[in-house]
Design goal:
Elements lengths: L3 H4 L14 H5 L8 E2 L2 H10 L3 E6 L4 H11 L2 H10 L1 E6 L4 H15 L6 E5 L5 E5 L13 H14 L1 H18 L11 H13 L16 H14 L2 H16 L13 E2 L7 E2 L2 E2 H18 L2 H17 L8 E4 L2 E2 L2 E2 L5 E2 H7 L2 H10 L18 E2 L7 H8 L3 H19 L7 E6 H18 L2 H17 L1 E2 L2 E7 L2 E5 L2 H18 L2 H18 L32 H16 L2 H20 L5 H11 L3 E7 L4 H11 L6 E7 L4 H4 L16 E6 L2 E2 L6 H7 L8
Helix pairs in contact: 5-7, 6-8, 7-8, 9-10, 10-11, 10-12, 10-24, 12-13, 12-18, 14-15, 18-19, 18-20, 19-20, 20-21, 20-22, 22-23, 22-24
């Protein structure tokens, strides 16, 4: 994507000139007379009696770039668009509310979706045509954008009633999609059903689910890990470890600079779609952290730490908040920054290193994948054909010798790669995705007992609470000093999740109070009193077309799924029965959707796992920093106990914690020794000062890893 500033002398700015979104700025000098979403565009369409051409994408989207180069930078097509339509550009990451509605419309009309999303709609925002990427010219059985524009022009002029009727039908279909009823309780049976459904689509050979493109989908693995914890089902654990091992060895992982690419276009995890999203890093780091906690296998810890190293190095603002994404493209070519020819490898490394790297990373003279741009590719995607144990046998070297060689090679290649033209970085800060990263860092701080992750999590949380909490309401986006766009359900639910994890990592009561206060705001403005569940937008937010209520877990868990678990957590921490009742209402509200497609609601079902139990409410009472207190707290962190909430009460300074729940006031340490109070299944156990007794109550053994 050309830099708008470079084109300013040749092209006039359109109406996107003053926008903050990097995506909109990319299109600010297009000859298309783009408008941002707003009253000005819709009033113009109504006044001039024109339909709307709505184009939705994001700044790191490869096919968005392709369509922009082919069509939106083309003066002939731009002239047609400006003549027939009022064109509107939307950044899906800035306005997930708009994107969500019109993506659903596209899926209703075409059975598929994706970005760039192309919507043609009436001036009153009702869509009557939808699609994704369109080439500029028709061919190979697909209509081109130029012909599409001319066809819509004829329809709008000669057969408008058909378009208007279609728009009304889609509008009513959208209303139906967002309706929820009241079904039955899901209960424990849904856990077994979900496990069975995931087993059916599991790829035994390569890990992951399905036999085509592979998405990491960490919430599927989080569910399976919890199912293993509940049932000791070895295949559930195998599905987790096989997938995590295959992902870490594949080309979807950046073996030089770390972090995961968006998804793999093949079933083998080899050829990725090269963009890197913040939410993927957060969620994947969480599942590797949990896998380490559950198995004790150090390579899961290593991958989690490398992901976080990438984020803290490349995706962190100077204020300590986290950027959104890095592009798949550089110099106009997808993946160019990441791939290597055998010749380039030999130029950077000495002969022995190049031989070693070629074997370990599967580098071939004629390339190891088809790049899609030429008939004979000579490029290679670095990946591991053999795991470390296999390498020790094949190469007859020790594990440490192999790891040292790989690390020396990695540093050399990484430093050389740094000289290349970097992909574009989308440097806007999004509240919801930062909430996920705060959760990931906080979990890593707990499990790895590493202060740097805790400090990074605190810094990011403080930034959000200071810069993106305005009049006690969250806003969605921050960039260049500007915090704006009303917060949505994901902003609140993901941030609450992050703050709850941060409290558990730090036991700083301000983060727990912040989570509780955000939860109150969320309930006030988003809760559906009639049919239960949470709307995606607040009751006083902009009215678009419909007020969506989403439960489907896609690349990230749905806001309702995350908030379902948040409600249970806060209810158990604060002993608030009303929040527990709300969670039960959510269960019945969404049960039909969940039962219809369990694999599309795995994070919500993880909430059912917590609700069914066994789950634990733990209060540790001791002196801050005392050895007996630290031993008790650190012992809990060493074990995979997902269905727990924990509060620490400082015996010497109990006042703030006592306010969280009335029952906490009456809990004190026994004989001056750190004491654990544990409640489960509606009953509370005798307080204990013994770590082994505490573990016994929690259902774990000191040698169970």
């Amino acid at each position: 994507m050309k830099n708008p500033e470079e084109n300013a002398s040749k092209n006039r700015y359109n109406h996107l000139k003053n926008e903050k979104s990097p995506y909109l700025i990319q299109h600010a000098t297009n000859p298309v007379d783009w408008y941002p979403w707003g009253d000005e565009a819709f009033k113009k369409a109504e006044k001039e009696d024109k339909p709307i051409f709505l184009s939705i994408g994001y700044s790191t989207c490869h096919w968005c770039h392709v369509m922009a180069h082919e069509s939106f930078e083309n003066p002939e097509i731009a002239t047609l668009l400006n003549h027939v339509f009022v064109p509107i550009k939307v950044d899906r990451e800035e306005r997930p509310d708009i994107d969500g509605i019109y993506m659903t419309a596209c899926q209703i009309m075409t059975g598929t979706g994706g970005w760039p999303l192309t919507i043609i709609m009436t001036p009153d925002k009702k869509p009557f045509f939808a699609g994704t990427y369109f080439p500029s010219e028709s061919g190979f059985g697909a209509i081109g954008l130029k012909d599409l524009i001319l066809n819509v022009q004829d329809i709008w002029k000669d057969n408008r009633s058909e378009a208007l009727n279609s728009g009304e039908q889609i509008f009513h279909a959208l209303q139906d999609v967002s309706k929820t009823g009241k079904g039955e309780y899901l209960g424990e049976k849904i856990l077994d059903i979900t496990y069975d459904e995931l087993s059916k689509v599991f790829d035994d050979e390569n890990g992951g689910f399905g036999d085509f493109q592979k998405f990491p989908t960490p919430h599927n693995l989080m569910f399976l890990l919890r199912y293993w914890k509940r049932t000791a089902n070895k295949h559930a654990m195998y599905m987790v470890t096989k997938t995590l091992d295959s992902m870490a060895m594949g080309g979807i992982y950046d073996h030089l600079g770390f972090g995961f690419h968006r998804y793999s276009v093949d079933k083998d995890w080899l050829v990725p779609h090269f963009e890197k999203m913040l939410y993927d890093q957060a969620l994947i780091a969480i599942i590797y952290t949990e896998a380490f906690q559950a198995t004790g296998k150090m390579h899961y810890k290593k991958i989690a730490e490398e992901i976080l190293e990438y984020v803290l190095r490349d995706m962190c603002s100077k204020e300590g908040a986290f950027y959104s994404a890095e592009d798949a493209d550089s110099e106009g070519v997808e993946g160019k920054f990441y791939v290597w020819t055998a010749k380039e490898i030999k130029e950077v490394l000495d002969h022995d290193e190049a031989e070693f790297a070629s074997f370990v990373f599967d580098i071939k003279d004629n390339g190891n994948f088809n790049d899609g741009y030429s008939q004979e590719s000579i490029n290679n995607i670095l990946h591991l054909k053999h795991d470390i144990n296999e390498l020790t046998e094949i190469l007859e070297l020790s594990k440490s010798e192999i790891e040292d060689k790989i690390e020396k090679i990695r540093i050399k290649l990484y430093n050389e790669r740094e000289k290349r033209v970097h992909p574009h970085k989308d440097d806007k800060v999004l509240t919801d995705w930062n909430g996920l990263m705060i959760a990931a860092l906080s979990q890593a701080a707990q499990v790895f007992n590493d202060e740097k992750y805790l400090e990074a999590s605190k810094t990011a949380a403080d930034f959000i609470l200071q810069k993106l909490l305005v009049n006690n309401r969250l806003v969605h986006r921050y960039r260049e000093g500007d915090a704006s766009i009303a917060g949505n359900l994901d902003d609140y639910s993901f941030m609450i999740w992050g703050l709850l994890e941060l409290y558990t990592a730090s036991f700083d009561i301000k983060y727990l109070n912040a989570a509780i206060n955000l939860n109150k705001t969320l309930i006030k403005y988003f809760w559906d009193d009639k049919n239960y569940g949470f709307y995606f937008t607040a009751s006083d937010s902009e009215k678009i077309l419909i007020r969506e209520k989403k439960i489907y877990d896609s690349a990230t868990p749905a806001g309702n799924s995350v908030e379902f678990l948040n409600l249970i957590h806060i209810a158990r921490l604060t002993k608030d029965p009303e929040l527990e009742k709300m969670a039960v209402k959510m269960e019945t509200s969404f049960s039909e959707d969940v039962e219809r497609l369990p694999t599309g609601h795995t994070y919500f079902i993880s909430g059912i796992d917590f609700q069914v139990g066994p789950s634990f409410e733990i209060v540790i009472v001791g002196k801050t920093g005392a050895s007996d207190t630290l031993k008790m707290l650190n012992t809990i962190k060493n074990y995979y106990i997902p269905n727990k909430v924990i509060i620490f009460k400082d015996q010497d300074n109990p006042n703030d914690v006592n306010k969280i729940a009335e029952s906490i006031e009456h809990k004190n340490n026994v004989e001056g020794i750190a004491t654990a109070y544990i409640c489960t299944a509606g009953s509370c156990k005798q307080p204990t000062t013994h770590v082994n007794e505490m573990l016994k109550i929690l259902g774990v053994k000191s040698d169970n890893k």
